[in-house]
Write a structure and sequence with these properties.
single chain, about 325 residues, alpha+beta, Aminopeptidase, Nucleoside Triphosphate Pyrophosphohydrolase, eight-stranded mixed β-sheet, about 30% strand, DNA repair, hydrolase, 8-oxo-GDP phosphatase activity
């Protein structure tokens, strides 16, 4: 089933929201079986207000039908529903939703993940991305959410995203009737003030092009954030370094190659708001260096044709650079 009427109002047309380890995308009818398997768990139902138990395939199909229509703007009372999937492997792990309130000036957020994905920071990551979307793309002024009184883990997720506890709510929207919940709220002004305190991180990256026109990608090694994702080689600009000087140093340390600053041609840059910092990353083109690139810090290397770059899961900051690089090449 194809709902093609994603509307342009308030800045959303059904596009995927990227997070460091997750993608938040529009739900699809083919998600039904995976959703049913995840949600048909008494522990999931126990701590949510809208997931019944047992949760069968027909329940998943009904949810998807309603979510698709509401997200597409085909019904009055439009809402926004996202299927949460991992960037590596593209496994579906849960759902996060925004129900607009007060004529779109605010919204109620609800979310759940399959139990096997609890305790790994995925809920916090998804929630922070949706909060940013609500305030910056939808222009909402406030958000609220509720948690089960005996679910302190979900309360911590909300607190990490900046929400404040406002007391007990005995009429919080539930599956088929109001329920008691711990009520949380976050105002856009408070969120903006919190965002303004984030540090800025300057990182320089290079698109190394070999004689066959292939681009070098490096995987982030185990133990680092976003481990397993593929990125353009480079690293943090230290102290009084220029981005070019930092690249010369980083490529020597990471890949064992020698590059002259004069061989670095600036192409574009990324500006991306991560959970704990704001990244600025200029991307340079380089076609000449000395030595053979080899991994020196536990990463994997791949020489990739430009048209295949999008096949490799990347950190959110690197993704928009791919199209620009392909157009240039």
């Amino acid at each position: 089933m194809d709902y093609a009427c994603f509307t342009a109002d308030k800045g959303w047309r059904g596009q995927t929201l990227e997070a460091p380890r997750l993608r938040l995308r529009a739900p699809r009818t083919e998600d039904a079986r995976a959703l049913a398997e995840l949600a048909n768990d008494p522990e999931v139902a126990r701590y949510t207000t809208r997931v019944p138990h047992p949760y069968e395939l027909d329940d998943a199909r009904l949810f998807l039908e309603q979510a698709l229509r509401r997200t597409a703007g085909c019904e009055t009372g439009r809402g926004y529903a996202f299927a949460v999937e991992k960037r590596i492997g593209e496994d579906l792990i849960g759902v996060i939703e925004i129900d607009p309130q007060d004529e779109g000036r605010g919204g109620v957020i609800g979310y759940w993940l399959g139990k096997s994905h609890w305790g790994r920071g995925f809920a916090t990551e998804a929630l922070k991305r949706v909060v940013s979307f609500a305030f910056t793309s939808l222009g909402m002024d406030w958000l609220r959410a509720g948690t089960h009184p005996k679910n302190p883990a979900s309360a911590r997720v909300l607190e990490k995203a900046g929400f404040s506890f406002k007391g007990m709510d005995t009429a919080f929207p539930g599956h088929d009737k109001p329920v008691e919940a711990r009520a949380y709220r976050l105002a856009r002004g408070d969120w903006h003030r919190r965002e303004a305190t984030k540090p800025r991180l300057l990182v320089a990256a290079a698109a190394l092009l070999d004689g066959d026109g292939r681009v070098l990608l490096c995987s982030r090694p185990e133990g680092k954030t976003m481990a397993g994702l593929w990125e353009f080689p480079g690293g943090k600009v230290e102290g009084a370094e220029t981005p070019e000087a930092a690249l010369v140093r980083e490529l020597k340390e990471e890949l064992g190659i020698d590059i002259s600053q004069s061989c670095l041609a600036p192409l574009t840059f990324a500006s991306h708001n991560y959970d704990d910092f704001h990244l600025l990353m200029p991307l340079y083109i380089c076609r000449a260096w000395k030595g053979a690139a080899h991994p020196k810090e536990g990463q994997r290397l791949k020489w990739v044709r430009p048209m295949r770059l999008a096949d490799y899961p990347m950190p959110p900051a690197d993704i928009p650079l791919v199209a620009l690089l392909r157009d240039f090449l």
